[in-house]
Design brief:
Blueprint: E1 3-10, E2 15-22, E3 27-32, H1 41-44, H2 52-56, E4 60-65, H3 80-106, E5 111-116, H4 118-129, E6 134-140, H5 156-159, H6 163-166, E7 179-187, H7 191-203, E8 209-217, H8 220-231
Parallel strand pairs: 3-4, 3-5, 5-6, 6-7, 7-8
Antiparallel strand pairs: 1-2, 2-4
Length: 235
């Protein structure tokens, strides 16, 4: 499995970002780390190894970028408005830097986005905000209501980065063309968030799969089982 390291200065986040890329061809899959995780976390915890067959056979090319969680939603040292504003810059980075990069390298017109735990939030938020760029969404143990990080403060940046708030009013036609999988488990601390998001999608008649696995917790072993299964749905 080929592996490449990239580092670049992002004008949208005004910081240097790092990323690992696995594979040399195939459908582009952006995989976000969990809470405050770095670009190498999904490799270190075996998530990338779990889909080695897909990479080695040229079916997918996986991009594992940094997040800026510690500068945005988890930064208790700044006002919630600034947390949201900082995250809006990360969203612009994805839209204007990383996604075009992945599309250009692979020659594919849309991407897949995926992540475990808080990485599932990053994936879902981007997919539902920019459905014209995303064909597949794979969330594993995600939570989707960002208001838990805003101390009661609310503004447009929070609204437009909070899927459970903006999704009910969105009528972008590509939402109905997306392959959406919400993976959770019987003892997942985030199961309720997945059921809530599934209900929103049901109300909009958006086809999706709420995958609730039995006897499992909010942890890497079940996510390593889910990820290859979900990648197999890419067509």
């Amino acid at each position: 499995m080929t592996e490449k390291f990239h580092r670049w200065h992002s004008p949208n986040t005004n910081t240097d970002l790092e990323m690992l890329v696995f594979g040399d061809r195939g459908y582009p899959v952006i995989v976000f780390p969990t809470t405050k995780g770095r670009y190498y976390q999904n490799k270190d915890f075996g998530l990338i190894e779990s889909v080695k067959w897909f990479v080695d056979n040229g079916l997918v090319k996986i991009y594992c970028p940094d997040t800026i969680d510690d500068r945005s939603w988890y930064n208790k040292g700044i006002h919630p408005a600034d947390r949201a504003k900082t995250y809006a810059g990360y969203d612009r980075m994805l839209l204007n830097e990383l996604i075009p990069w992945a599309m250009h390298e692979t020659g594919v017109g849309k991407v897949a986005v995926a992540g475990c735990s808080f990485g599932g939030y990053h994936a879902a938020n981007f997919a539902f905000k920019h459905p014209e760029k995303v064909r597949h969404l794979f969330s594993m143990g995600g939570a989707f209501d960002i208001k838990m990080f805003t101390d009661g403060y609310y503004d447009d940046n929070i609204f437009y980065n909070n899927p459970v708030d903006f999704l009910p009013g969105s009528n972008h036609h590509n939402l109905w063309q997306m392959n959406i999988i919400l993976g959770t488990s019987e003892h997942d601390i985030c199961k309720g968030y997945n059921i809530q998001l599934s209900n929103i999608l049901k109300q909009k008649n958006i086809k999706h799969w709420l995958d609730i696995r039995p006897f499992a917790n909010h942890d890497w072993p079940i996510w390593r089982e889910m990820f290859p299964h979900y990648l197999s749905t890419i067509k």
